[in-house]
Amino acid sequence: MNREYRIVGKELVLVALVIFLSLMLSGSLYKARVQKENAKILRNELTMLRSGVMLYYTLNKKFPDSLESLEKESYESPDGKKMVYLEKMPPQKKGEYIDPFGETYQYNSKTGWIESKAKGFHYW
Questions:
Q1: Domain ranges in the chain?
Q2: Alpha-carbon distance 68 to 58, whole Å?
């Protein structure tokens, strides 16, 4: 009887270990997938923001003073419609635009360059 309890106890420990290792593996795989998806979103947002800055520069012969100018200022399209430079802006927190990693976008109004503060993506 005592021997049966030991065998069952060892099996339970083995099952618990397998479950624990499976959860650890799936958690790291999930984190890697989220990182990859956030990188894709970051690339798209940077492209969108930089395109808006270049459109502003092309029409006004100067870079916008801030990223907010891209959604607040407007221009007239060739067909007479009033348009904003960017209709869909990234989310904001305390007045700053936030990238998919939760870091703020940095904008240089002298050069028109936009970058993320996210670790590993600074030079994108």
A1: 2-116
A2: 17
Asked if the model's pLDDT at residue 2 lies above 70, the reply is: no
Residue type, 95: G
In this predicted model, what pLDDT tens digit does every residue of 15-25 receive, in sequence order? 777 787 777 77
List all residues 6 or more positions away from 102 whose beta carbon is below 8 Å from its beta carbon. 118
DSSP state of 9: H
Q: pLDDT tens digits for 89-122?
A: 888 887 789 999 999 999 999 999 999 988 888 7
Place of tokens 């795989």: 29
Instruction: Tell me how far apart the alpha carbons of residues 83 and 100 are, in angstroms, rounded to a whole number.
Output: 26
How far apart are alpha carbons 120 and 68 in whole angstroms?
A: 26
